[in-house]
Design goal:
Elements: E1 8-12, H1 19-30, E2 32-36, E3 63-64, H2 77-93, E4 97-102, H3 105-112, H4 122-135, H5 138-147, H6 149-155, H7 160-173, E5 190-195, H8 199-215, H9 218-225, H10 242-250, H11 255-277, E6 283-286, H12 293-308
Parallel strand pairs: 1-4, 1-5, 2-3, 2-4, 5-6
Helix pairs in contact: 1-12, 2-3, 4-7, 5-6, 5-7, 8-11, 9-10, 10-11
């Protein structure tokens, strides 16, 4: 799709900040469709634990890149990039505005930015994962700090999956992983808005959301996914909430421990999301807890669309 055409709108921010509702409002207001940039919402059947907006609550707005993988599939950034860009091009070709919404930072960048996806090697990846299981994440992070300090600083020691990916790329290509990290440069005309509620209020929202997930039947949802192979799903089985619910099903965690562990892990994840998005100068930040702030954001986006022609 050429650069000329409908504006792309991105709604980003940490989990539980209200992205899904704002994306719906924007799509309704400007004439658009939502493209999810949430890695876990790609999975069919993983609804409660991913806070996936139920179909009946989407107000007739089509949503793309939701429910496209089985729980035994591995979500990859390379496949998502191809599929998300295809969705964006399709929406723009019909004169509508893609509203890319999500908190998976690299997925947002893969959809919107100049980003080279390095190759993968299952054998190398498997060896590094086995090493992480056997020795813990620290030796791998130390190795990455030595081989590619720029990537190590950007990723951080707690994101074990990305540390492994960075080491895999270094070993396969002989080049630093940081050399293939995304540029902050949009492929298409794009405007970005970020939701950033005060941290203490966000923590309360996260705790409340996690407790509600258990009340809504997350454990039963996980039980229903066991026959579909969620235990074999490398990505799905480790998702926040799903790993803990599986442990509760197996009797290795109590309900109380599973809820508390999920809430704590989700709060840490929200901090990482904030750290990922915060340095991006293209994002206009909004505190959704301020009266009228979301209305103002929608108004500004409508104006940006009008100015884009």
């Amino acid at each position: 799709m050429p650069a000329e055409g409908p504006l792309v709108i991105a709604v980003v921010g940490p989990t539980a900040s209200g992205k899904s509702e704002l994306a719906l409002r924007v799509a309704e207001t400007v004439g658009g469709e939502v493209v999810s940039a949430d890695a876990m919402q790609l999975y069919r059947g993983m609804d409660i634990g991913t806070a996936k907006l139920p179909f009946a609550e989407r107000r007739g707005i089509p949503h793309h890149q939701i429910d496209v993988l089985d729980v035994t599939d591995e979500a990859t950034i390379a496949a998502y990039q191809v599929d998300a860009r295809r969705s964006i091009d399709d929406i723009r070709s019909r004169g509508l505005h893609p509203v890319v919404a999500g908190g998976s930072g690299l997925y947002v960048r893969a959809a919107l930015d100049h980003l080279e996806i390095p190759p993968t090697d299952p054998e190398v990846r498997g060896r590094l994962e086995a090493e992480a299981e056997e020795r813990g994440p620290e030796p791998l992070f130390a190795a990455l700090s030595e081989r590619d300090p720029v990537a190590a600083q950007s990723i951080g020691r707690h994101n074990v999956r990305r540390v492994i990916r960075a080491l895999e790329v270094v070993e396969i290509t002989g080049r630093p992983f940081s050399a293939s990290m995304p540029e902050r440069r949009n492929l298409l005309p794009t405007v970005m808005v970020g939701l950033r509620p005060p941290r203490d209020l966000l923590d309360v929202r996260i705790d409340s959301r996690v407790e509600q997930m258990w009340r809504d039947g997350l454990v039963d949802e996980v039980r229903s996914l066991v026959p579909h192979g969620i235990r074999r799903g490398r990505t799905a089985s480790r998702a926040l909430g799903y790993a803990q619910a599986l442990a509760q099903v197996d009797g290795t965690m109590t309900r109380e421990r599973a809820v508390a562990d999920t809430a704590q892990a989700t709060r840490r994840y929200a901090r990482r999301q904030e750290s990922w998005f915060r340095p991006d100068p293209r994002i206009s930040w909004v505190d959704p807890t301020v009266d009228g702030a979301l209305d103002d954001a929608v108004h500004e986006l409508r104006r940006a669309v009008a100015e884009n022609g």
